[in-house]
Amino acid sequence: MKKRSFLPFCIGLMNITYVVAQNPADYASSITLQELKEHLYVYASDEFAGRETGTEGEQKAIHFLKDYYQSIGVQGGNNNKTYFQNMVLSTRRGKTLNGTNVLAYIPGSDKKDEVLVITSHLDHIGVEPDGQINNGADDDGSGTVAMMEIAEAFQEAVANGDGPRRSILFLHVSGEEKGLLGSKYYTDHPVYPLKNTVTNLNIDMIGRVDSLHLDQPDYLYLIGSDILSDDLHEVSEAANQAYVQLNLDYRYNDPTTLVWERGRYRENNYYYRSDHYHFIKNNIPAIFYFNGTHADYHAPTDTVEKIDYHLLERRTKLIFHTAWAIANREDRIRLDKKNNVIK
Ligand SMILES: [Zn+2]
């Protein structure tokens, strides 16, 4: 893994290092477009065969993630520090599948019992009948590699004595494309009590630009940040203003905003369409990070060379800084609008 530029100073100048290290931007600098790209070129390659739940491709994906977390020294987040939460999942069509969530965990310091859960889905939609592979570089390879880099940045902070006050669970869920099944399973069988789960940051598709932003690509949709908690919204806005300055687009906080999908305008309903849903329905404040859909959505053309890696790096840094603030602030994120789930 990568070195931080100020690391040599640690040896002789502990006090100065302590001051320097308090700045999360030092750790954010370990999140690089080169590493995001390196990870994604493996994760969204043909070798993983579209990562469909219950297939060998998904097995490769879960072992890739486990090996990665072991290599950076982040322990498993399931019981006994294991990485895999094995599940038998039932699809809407009544089919039974074996799926596996991958859990990695950084224990907090003085507020260890409170947990921030960061999610992205590890699965995708597999292979087309004609043999074309859906590599899912954006969906959700982008969220997956973002989480890998965020975990690495926090682990560097841990190594430097700056570990988070609250614990962080890096939860890579299976079965999303079959109907948010892995996140449902986790919240039905939580490893860490849901009442101590302070926030969910869910990352699903953050590597591309949609047709509404071709002229201003430095944007990201944030969905849900103020729906359960004004506090969460303020933390997120402050992190963006201080460190990243992306144009945060909140239009899909309204689930009835129309989007062009499958040949006609439909209500977007994005607030209910990715894994944060199973957290919000349990009154856990959540933000869904999303770039919107594009012509390659759920198509074999969602491939690695179409990802904007500069943008992926900035968006990943935004999520890192937001996670840092949530994990390290004095007060837990306040839930101030309980049961504000519209359907
Ligand atoms: Zn997705």
Distance between the termini: 44 Å
Tell me the number of structural domains. 1
Q: What profile does the largest beta sheet have?
A: 9 strands, mixed
Average of per-residue pLDDT values: 93
Task: Give the total of beta strands.
Answer: 11
| Rg computed from alpha carbons, rounded to a whole number of angstroms | 19 Å
Query: What ligands can be seen in this structure?
Result: zinc ion
Describe the fold and architecture:
The chain has a single domain, classed as Zn peptidases (Aminopeptidase), CATH 3.40.630. A hairpin with a 5-residue loop joins strand 2 (84-90) and strand 3 (96-106). The chain is an alpha/beta fold. Strands 1, 2, 3, 4, 5, 6, 7, 8 and 11 form a nine-stranded mixed beta sheet that branches. Strands 9-10 form a two-stranded antiparallel ribbon. It has helices at residues 9-12, 14-21, 24-28, 33-43, 56-72, 137-159, 181-188, 230-244, 277-280, 309-328; strands at residues 75-76, 84-90, 96-106, 111-121, 166-173, 197-203, 219-223, 247-249, 258-261, 264-267, 286-290. Helix 4 (33-43) crosses helix 10, helix 6 (137-159) crosses helix 10 and helix 8 crosses helix 10 (309-328). It is globular. Zinc ion is lined by residues 121, 139-140, 176, 204-205.
